[in-house]
Specification:
By secondary structure, this protein is mainly β. It has no helices and 6 strands. The chain has a single domain, classed as Pantoate--beta-alanine Ligase, Chain: A,domain 2 (2-Layer Sandwich), CATH 3.30.1300. Strands 1-2-3-4-5-6 form a 6-stranded antiparallel beta sheet, with no helix packed on it.
Length: about 90
């Protein structure tokens, strides 16, 4: 998917974001591996890039319940990289 966002300010100047993102899921063993990636570049007042990728694994315990674990890496221009880990259980009603 590709998107463009443009913002106008009451003051001088505008800025816009160009964003591309994609992902995939692949059956592996009894579960599914998930892997998305996104890249944004802004022009104007912000003039920065944002890169984000993740990898996760989803495992079904039953027809309504699954558990999953994921890792996310986030990076903005001139800012340290952020890492997020998560593990959860989901029940579908």
């Amino acid at each position: 998917m590709y998107t463009v966002h443009e913002n106008d300010f009451d003051g001088p100047g505008t800025f816009h974001f160009n964003t591309g993102q994609g992902g995939m899921t692949v059956p592996v063993g009894p579960g599914t591996v998930m892997a998305p990636y996104a890249y944004s570049r802004s022009k104007g007042g912000l003039d920065q890039t944002h890169k984000s990728w993740a990898v996760g694994y989803d495992y079904s315990l039953s027809k309504r319940t699954d558990v999953y674990a994921a890792y996310l890496n986030d990076k903005y221009t001139s800012v340290l990289t952020g890492d997020t880990f998560g593990v959860s259980i989901r029940v579908k009603l």
